[in-house]
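#struct-help
A.M.: can someone run this one for me? Single chain, 141 residues.
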Amino acid sequence: MANHDNEIETANERASARLSKTPTALAARYDRRIGRLVIDLSSGLSVAFKPHHAQGLERAKPEHLSKVEISPSGLGLHFPALDADLYLPSILEGFLGSRRWMAEQLGRAGGQARSEAKAAAVRANGKLGGRPKKVRVADVA
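D.P.: on it. Structure tokens below:
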């Protein structure tokens, strides 16, 4: 039992050491004027971003964002009206959602990309008759 208590004490010391080096949230609010969620950090800096860029807040309306709860550690933000949570260290690293969610957002944005080069390629392909028909394996054999 003493060894188990030792492990818990060691883990708590590591967590305290990490927490002392990590900025924590002192205040968080939605600023309607600029349309951004603003987080004031213990380091003296503030971070602001558009809520619809964060997982769980994509379809949030201003009234959903009016109440933000900060976890006791200062590392989590909770939006009771949406039952959504954000993790501050991830936000500070530029991740506003899970890896899967972020990849989905990037893929969606890439698929919607419109450039003059892309439009020209579509026009040129259309002049050639468009995409070739799919060839079934039975037709080839």
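A.M.: thanks! Residues 22-96 form a domain with the NE0471 N-terminal domain-like fold (CATH 3.30.2020.40).
D.P.: also worth noting: Residues 2-21 form the longest helix (20 residues).
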